[in-house]
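The records we work with from here on pair a chain with its fold. These numbers are not coordinates but entries in a learned vocabulary of local backbone shapes. To see the layout at work, look at the sequence and tokens printed below.

. . .
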Amino acid sequence: MLALFLRDVRLGVRAGGGALVGVLFFLAVVAVVPFGVGPDLNLLARIGPAILWIGALLASLLGLDRLFQADREDGALDLLILADFRHMLAVTIFVKCAAHWTASVLPLVVASPLLSLFMNMDPAAILATSATLLAGTPAIAFIGAVGAAVAVSLPRGGLLVSVLILPLVIPVLIFGVSAAYGAANDPQPFLPPFLILCALTLLFAVIGPFAAALALKSSSD
């Protein structure tokens, strides 16, 4: 499993620019907002956590359609499906999701404190937003595995993956932004929405790989 993780991390970094494309897309989303909102620094600070979360969410969708594509092209995916024993396919998908998050999404979390400066956010809001992104973005990878498994046999399934998983990641977005706002605004709580966000990540870490394994088996029939 460690060899699979390292292999997928290398493939994720090399394919299509990998993390660099995601970070540049994240930067483009965050940098455009001040031009649209205007020079109101207080307004930018208020909406900053939401903009960072939306930018990270959209950037996380990049490359999800390639999660199983390389294995399908070289025939490894068929071997994994045929050799499935005691849910080992779900475990393999879990490792692939972790590798995708490490290669493509973790750089977004690392870049988020720097991009927060564009939004005039205070240190507490920057730290809270980074923490919520670190806790919540793995859920996007696990949910995305289901969409990638459904669209793996389609020649251009990237858009379909985004359409399928966007409704499912709305709760992650809601509680991530709520926790970030709670840290920046004293009357609002930080810990309850943050714990719910962590629970959602754990839930999707269990459900996502099994649902993706079922989708892959169905697509191979």
The chain has one domain: 2-220. The two ends are 26 Å apart (CA to CA).
